[in-house]
Amino acid sequence: MLKLTYTETSFCLECLVQSLEEWVQARVILALRVGQSLCVEPSTASFLLPVNLPGVEILKALVNRENSEIIALVNCDHECVEVTLRGYWLSNSSQDGDGIFITASSDSSYGEHSASPTEFFLHKLWQEAQHRASVMSE
Questions:
Q1: I need a labelling partner for 32 at 20 to 30 A (CA). Which of 21, 106, 118, 138 fits?
Q2: Which residues pair with residue 121 across a beta bridge?
Q3: pLDDT of the chain, 138 residues: tens digit per residue
Q4: Where are the alpha helices (DSSP H) in 67-116?
């Protein structure tokens, strides 16, 4: 499962081995216990990866091989590839810009408590892109 946490200024991508259903259930129970409203709705999330990042071509092959309806890749320009994920948006209200986006591969062959190889690889590439961006800004 992939979890993207959005704030006003950035987002963080995590790869979790918990099932999407278990994670949502725990989040709903937490919201009930603390008396917080929670909106859960189907949505998409997108972010960019540098097209010259080592491994982007492997990611494209993995996505094509899995024929995934969850992950789509589109070349934006000569510098970036856009990663679009289908999943669910969780926030305090349907109009809230801060929240959490979650998605999981629909292929259950990886087991209930494991992420797909594509999810792990996408997370690894995102981490590498973040590392490169931080090194360049120093």
A1: 106
A2: none
A3: 999 998 778 889 999 988 899 999 999 999 999 999 999 999 999 999 999 999 999 999 999 888 778 999 999 999 999 999 999 999 987 676 778 999 987 555 445 556 688 899 999 999 999 988 777 665
A4: none
